[in-house]
Amino acid sequence: MPRLPVPGGDTGNWGDILNDYLSVSLASNGSLKPGIPQSKITNLTDDIADKYTKPSSGIPKSDLTSDVQTSLDSADSALQPGGGSPAANEYARFTGADTVEGRSAAQVRSDLNIEDGATADQTNAEIETAYNAQVSAASQAEAEAGTETADRRWSPLRVREAAASYTDDEVAALPALENSDDINVDDSVPTTLTLATKRAPRVFAGTSAYLLSTFNDDATETTLLNSTADIPANTLSLGDLVRITAIGTVTNNTGSNRDVTLRIKLEGTTLLTFAFTSLATSANGRTWTIDAIGTIYTLFGDGYSVGAKGLLGAAGGGVVDTNLLVAGNQTIDRGNELNFDITAQHSFASTDLTTTLRGFTVEQLPTPA
Questions:
Q1: Cβ–Cβ under 8 Å, residues 192 and 348
Q2: Do 249 and 356 contact (CB within 8 A), yes or no?
Q3: Number of Cβ within a 10 Å radius of residue 10
Q4: Which pLDDT score is estimated for 195?
Q5: What is the pLDDT of residue 353?
Q6: What is the three-state SS of the chain?
């Protein structure tokens, strides 16, 4: 088969090899052999002359097809990175016309003025905490002085302390009603009112808040108080009236009827028992209240005799579902400190059976002077 000579090789016969190769298409006189058209040689020459030569500066867009030029125009108008390209797990923010930059989660919260760590709307407890941080609770001194002009939060205890701070002379100095016409009431109202002078009430222990304590997931008797409820030694006299009040909620969402027992204890001994039995299951809570009033007496020794009412509301409503009337009696030593406690006990340990305490008071009621 004819071939071209190999440079550096075919010594002594390279001329014969070249002649064999050329003789395929050329006659001995150098002309084309018959059968090979001249037009093919001409077209090849023209094609070589018309070939594209890439400019040294690169291929300009105008040399490309119209479809490629359109794609490049679209890329030119697309969004471009701004001050910083978004990294992994970052968000993008427009920084100007058609430009974006990366923003971390903390930066996005700052952009939207959202508190760090916030995942949802504020809960009732968070709202209460924020409000309490802005509005201080009235102190006992402020309640009794009655001169503070700033806004304050007032509990029932503080209102009672403010009312009790009036002395007999201040009560006597209150303006008398001279004529029923002055207050635009029926003429049957007496034109003179007589105010009985009473010894002011004394609050020994008490508080009122959105939530004092929560008890659940336990079937043993447990105190609901997170502070002491004590009457100091040598404080009470014979005939004095002592009142104990408490309020809270019970929620039984266990799927079955359950029992909840509340107890008032004096010096560690049960004084009153309030047994709320067979509470129907419900996702809605019930409000419970206890109001106990007793007197200090002496009969072969000092004692405290008390009668009480325990109320339990219906689930999710204000209708009274249970009304318990109980009584108790216990020997005491007025010369020692008297300690009161409020406990709860469940018939079933579950996080879906919950008792809360929202307020309690131990006080000496006013008696005629």
A1: no
A2: yes
A3: 15
A4: 43
A5: 95
A6: CCCCCCCCCCCCCHHHHHHHHHCCCECCCCCECCCCCHHHHHHHHHHHHCCCCCCCCCCCHHHCCHHHHHHHHHHHCCCEECCCCCCCCCEEEEEECCEEEEECHHHHHHHCCCCCCCCCCCCHHHHHHHHHHHCCECCHHHHHHCCCCCCCECCHHHHHHHHHCCCHHHHHCCCCCCCHHHCCCCCCCCCCCCCCCECCCEEEEEEEEEEEEEEECCCCCEECCCCCEEECCCCCCCCCEEEEEEEEEEEECCCCCEEEEEEEEECCEEEEEEEEEEECCCCCCEEEEEEEEEEEEECCCEEEEEEEEEEEECCCCCCEEEEEEEEEEEECCCCCCEEEEEEEEECCCCCCEEEEEEEEEEEECCCEC
Distance CA 306, CA 126 (A): 40
Cα radius of gyration rounded to whole Å, the chain: 49
Residue 17 contacts by C-beta under 8 Å, 6 or more apart in sequence? 3, 4, 5, 10
**Are the C-beta atoms of residues 207 and 200 closer than 8 Å to each other?**
no
**Burial bucket for residue 324 (CB in 10 Å: 0-12, 13-18, 19+):** middle
**Which residue, among 300, 241, 306, has the nearest Cα to 270 in the 3D structure?**
306
Confirm if 308 and 198 have CB atoms less than 8 A apart. Answer: no
Q: Over its length of 369 residues, how does the chain's per-residue pLDDT go in tens digits?
A: 778 777 777 777 877 877 887 787 777 777 777 766 666 555 656 666 667 778 888 888 888 888 888 888 777 766 555 555 566 667 777 776 667 777 777 788 788 777 776 667 778 888 888 888 888 888 888 877 878 888 888 777 777 777 777 666 666 665 554 554 544 545 554 444 444 444 455 677 665 554 578 888 899 999 998 777 888 888 888 888 899 999 999 999 999 999 999 999 998 999 999 999 999 999 999 999 999 998 988 766 788 888 888 888 888 776 777 888 888 888 888 888 889 999 999 999 999 999 999 888 888 887 655
185's tokens: 């009431």
Nearest to 352 by CA among 265, 284, 251: 251
Residue type at 257 in one-letter notation: N
> Which residues sit opposite 274 in a β-bridge?
262
